[in-house]
Amino acid sequence: MSEETLIYTNQRLPELLKLIKKNHKHADLKLIKSAYFFAEEAHRGAVRKSGEPYIAHPMAAALTLAEMGLDATTIAAGLLHDVPEDTHKTLQDIEQQFGSEIASLVEGVTKVGKLKYRGIERYMENLCRMFVAMAKDIRVILIRFADRVHNLETLNALPPEKRHRIALESLEIYAQIANRLGMGQMKGKLEDLAFPYVYPKEYQWLIKKVVPEFVEKREFIDRFLAYLNDAMKKHGVKIISIDGRTKYLYSLYKKLLHNNRDLNKIYDLIAIRIIVDNVAQCYEALGVVHEVCKPLKGRIKDYIAQPKPNGYQSLHTTVFSPPQFAKDEIYGQIVEIQIRTQQMHIAAEYGIAAHWRYKGTRLADILHDSKLHWTQNLANLQEQIKGGQILLDTLKIDFLQNYIFVFTPRGDVIELPEDATPIDFAYEIHSDLGNQCTGAKINDQIANLTTTLKNGDVVEIFSTPSRKGPNPDWLSVVKTQHARDHIRSALNKKRNTFLQNNTTD
Ligand code: MN
């Protein structure tokens, strides 16, 4: 390794320290420095396939973590993440020098990193293990994301078949998990870095098609921004910022596939994003937008009142720009506008990672935060609330509990509330399986249907089609609203049939 490259990497240390300090005024910068020098010394002499000194890699990962607003402990673990695997220093050395919290994060990262994506049949299994690791400590997953971003950035240095495997794994597993954790920016980054390696032809096609449109639309958007900015001032709505955001390429590609590859149907190729201080101002700003531009029917979405399942909040509207901006038929007529508060914006970009900015490092607080809707279950509940089918007091049951992840024998992940039973599990899979279940195996051991399930359990359900519906006692045992609803309706049906059969005219 040349002296020069080492100096370059060392120069990034002040940049890292500055970035950490921006989000955490009282961060332990000494810890970061000593983790850096520890890693630098351990990796010294080693070179990445790209020719860079090895330390450039953990440094890049640490910078990504700092950008996400993570705390010094997580960033130190990020700097050390490849030390036990690739150097003469061991996990014990790390524990001795940096304590058990950092050592256990590094250990988690090393463990998860050993999982290799080996084609579609291994997909679920890997996904499951990642979920289990996540349930233990989400920071392990965040470090893994940061690690993966830099690996994708330097993917060209690897042989083609390895490139494809890593890129596909990033697209199919990492980006999916980032999305579930509400990490919009990470999801977009992972997908756009992996896209050209997984679908090279489609990527080339998209670039050719879309780049000229980007250029053209950009020019229009800039004029439109100034117009909206003036309108906000005139109406006395204070905004923090207004700008045009370009859609991520892979997400654009997927949207095009749903729209017959017709770019004219994509209204958010460049969307306008308005950031304000509070929720009331979001609605005020929306009012101003609709006063100066005609909204498209059916395109106003209030994700503030009804957040997406992963917690996303914003107001979306799609408008016709005023006539003076529509310089021809194709460009600049229809634009999507997104309005949100600063806090909603950070939450949308960083998802679960954003909580470290506001709450410090107590993982328990973050997991207990009832504002994190990251289960599909909740999406269903929200649908029911909208439809008025559910009372607010029944909502608390699923909502405020912690979740556990258990697996089917095939390896599918099922999310259940804490203390859920095999009965809940059976109903989660299918109502018939719930109604007909007679017994269970947990981790290959015969178990009672009322046993409390634990994180990571593999659950198998035995069922008999001849079973005449659920046991009424189950109502006091089950933990999910879903199971309770199905048991009630099956019992009602049974009673009605009974009454019908025993009524004489
Ligand atoms: Mn690494």
What's the arrangement of secondary structure elements?
Layout lengths: L2 H21 L5 H15 L12 H12 L4 H8 L3 H4 L4 H8 L1 H14 L6 H17 L1 H16 L6 H21 L3 H15 L1 H35 L4 E8 L2 H10 L11 E7 L2 H14 L1 E2 L5 E2 L12 E6 L13 E8 H9 L4 H5 L3 H6 L7 H11 L5 H8 L3 E5 L5 E5 L4 H8 L1 H6 E6 L2 E3 L11 E5 L17 H21 L4
Parallel strand pairs: 2-6
Antiparallel strand pairs: 1-2, 3-5, 4-5, 5-6, 7-8, 9-10, 9-11
Manganese (II) ion binds next to loops.
Structure report:
The protein has helices spanning 3-23, 29-43, 56-67, 72-79, 83-86, 91-98, 100-113, 120-136, 138-153, 160-180, 184-198, 200-234, 249-258, 279-292, 342-350, 355-359, 363-368, 376-386, 392-399, 422-429, 431-436, 481-501; strands spanning 239-246, 270-276, 294-295, 301-302, 315-320, 334-341, 403-407, 413-417, 437-442, 445-447, 459-463. The chain is of the alpha+beta class and 505 residues long. Strands 1, 2, 3, 4, 5 and 6 form a six-stranded mixed sheet that branches. Strands 10-9-11 form a three-stranded antiparallel sheet. It is globular, with a radius of gyration of 26 Å. It is built from 22 helices and eleven strands. Helix 1 (3-23) packs parallel to helix 3 and helix 8 crosses helix 9. A hairpin with a 2-residue loop joins strand 9 and strand 10 (445-447). Manganese (II) ion is lined by residues 57, 81-82, 147.
